Amino acid sequence: MALNVVMLGPPGAGKGTQAERFAREHGIPKISTGDILREAVQSGSELGRAVEAVMERGELVSDELITGIVRERLGRPDVAGGFVLDGFPRTVPQAEALDGIVAGRHPLIVIEMQVPDEELVRRVQARRVCRACGTNVSAFGSNPSAVVRCETCGGELVTRSDDTEAVVRERLRVYWRDTRPMIEYYGRRPTFRAIDGAQGPDEVWQALVGAVMAVAAEAGLSVPPGARP
């Protein structure tokens, strides 16, 4: 069985961390919008050049362009056993395009990580970045003021300039405006699950794996041993 997973969640929900762990433990690629855009630019392909031109103008990549990049990425041999998508789709048109891309494959398992806005604001404000090496550090579950040195290089940890409450709340406003219709689009499907992302990372992991297993069982698909919590 191919595990084709889409991770949804607002900024600061931790979906990237969970997607990375899920992909690693199941031997499938994690595909994030940022990664494939950077890879496309570096490849020098026609699509990559188009993306680079848009980014150099400071514009947002269009649905058509990002969908083309995702289509190319999901056409590679390494996704035969499945994939984890993080950051795509973001809109209903992108979700509809993704349905066309994966038509004929195993169904999409869509997981939404739900976290209250106030908790998201707290988490993002608790993030730190190393002034020396740029490593991001989460102060999740601890006192942010107690985390002062980077474990990688020993550099000073500082607050990112864009991790202010006003910026975070604006990101959330845009997220809900653009993404809520897509969640409703997927929410009608039997392969959709919402999990509590406000728990600790290990508890969220258990919930994620349990949700994937439940969807697979209901769909009559065999679950590989690595998918068990």
Give a quick precis of the structure:
With 229 residues, this protein is α/β, with parallel strands linked by helices. Helix content is 46%, strand content 14%.
Give the overall average pLDDT.
86
* Approximate shape: globular
Strand order in space, largest sheet: 2-3-1-4-8
* CATH fourth-tier homologous superfamily: P-loop containing nucleotide triphosphate hydrolases
Tally of helical runs: 8
Distance between the termini: 17 Å
Q: Major beta sheet, specifics?
A: 5 strands, parallel
**In which range does the helix fraction lie?**
40-55%
**Topology order in helix (H) and strand (E) letters:** EHEHHHEHEHEEEHEH
In total, the number of strands is: 8
Name of the CATH architecture: 3-Layer(aba) Sandwich
Give the percentage of residues in beta strands: 5-15%
Ranges where pLDDT stays below 50 over 5 or more residues in a row are none
| Highest-level CATH class | Alpha Beta
Radius of gyration based on Cα positions: 18 Å
Overall tally of structural domains: 1
CATH fold title: Rossmann fold
What's the structural blueprint in terms of helices and strands?
Blueprint: E1 3-8, H1 15-26, E2 30-32, H2 33-43, H3 46-56, H4 63-73, E3 82-86, H5 92-101, E4 108-114, H6 117-126, E5 128-130, E6 136-137, E7 157-158, H7 165-187, E8 192-196, H8 201-218
Parallel strand pairs: 1-3, 1-4, 2-3, 4-8
Antiparallel strand pairs: 5-6, 5-7
